[in-house]
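Notes from the 1:1 (GR / supervisor)

We went over the backlog. Supervisor wanted to see one worked example end to end before approving the batch request, so GR pasted a single chain during the call. The sequence is below; no edits were made to it. Supervisor asked that the structure be written out right there so they could see what the output format looks like.
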Amino acid sequence: MKKLGLGILITLTVLALSGITTATPNQTRGEIDKVVFVHYPQGNVPYWSPIKASAPTDENTTYKYAGIHWAIPYVEYLVNSSAAPAGADSVVIAAFQTWENELNSLMDFEYKGVATSVGSNLDYKNVVSWQDITSQYPGAIAVTIVWYYRWSKEIVDVDTIMNNGSGFDWSVNDCTDSKCETPASVSSYDVQNIMTHEAGHWLMLLDLYQWRTQKLTMYGYGALGELQKRTLGLGDKLGIDRIY
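Structure output shown during the call:
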């Protein structure tokens, strides 16, 4: 396994050699690899700001894409919210709908009900869940795991896991202004805010870490009380327009 960037782990090992023996549904497409996107808190990350640089804005046009994509326009997903705050299912749906609205029916995310598992394994079921992932991903708010065919770059399975370990509190909040930029709570992570970012990874947009991209949904760090990732910035929209 090698580390790519600040928040992405990419595995280039044949799954059968790494303990996963589930057969692929179409062997002619080649072996399956996976990418793990790790979403870290903002913390005390130092910013390098050019003296004459303009302030970060959601009109920034930056995006990153790795070439991996869905080959179908219809993606079903399940939610296991047994360890999440009340109302989490509805805002997870809203997070996916944010991207779907921009795609104008070119991609349909369909909620199919309650998951009986917590995801994180290649089972060809796309799952959003909450569990303690602190030991595997220390300090991570959430991770999204994408399995894809190595040669065709087609996605076969995606799971997002929200960290409900010690120190990671979650809430479902109403926006306090029209652009969802005013924190409703500074002591918990907003489910819809974080999930909208993770849903961008389901579409295979990559994390952004430049100072000027802080107002975009795909900015790679999250913060307590943050709501601004609920609404897409220009770079986020340009990214998925290119892919789909």
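Supervisor's comment: The helical segments are 88-103, 191-202, 234-243.
Batch request approved.
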